Amino acid sequence: MNADAPQRIALLGATGSIGTSALDVIARHPERFVIDTLAAGSRVDALIELCKKFHPRFAVIADPSGYEALKNGLSDCGLRTQAAAGAAALNERASAEDVDTVIAAIVGAAGLDSTLAAARAGKRLLLANKESLVLAGELLMQTAHASGATIVPVDSEHNAIFQCLPAHGDNRNVSRIILTASGGPFRGKRRAELAEVTPAQAVAHPNWSMGAKISVDSATLMNKGLEVIEAHHLFGMAPSRISVVVHPQSIVHSMVEYDDGSTLAQLGRPDMRTTLAVGLAWPDRVASGVAGLDWQQHSRLDFEPPDLDTFPALQLAFDAMATGGTAPAMLNALNEVAVSAFLQAQCSFLGISALVAAGLNTLESEPASSLDALLAADLRARAFGAEYLRTH
Ligand SMILES: NC(=O)C1=CN([C@@H]2O[C@H](COP(=O)(O)OP(=O)(O)OC[C@H]3O[C@@H](n4cnc5c(N)ncnc54)[C@H](OP(=O)(O)O)[C@@H]3O)[C@@H](O)[C@H]2O)C=CC1
Ligand SMILES: CC(=O)[C@@H](O)[C@H](O)COP(=O)(O)O
Ligand SMILES: [Mn+2]
Question: Which keywords does this Swiss-Prot/TrEMBL entry list (predicted)?
Answer without folding.
Answer: Isoprene biosynthesis, Magnesium, Manganese, Metal-binding, NADP, Oxidoreductase
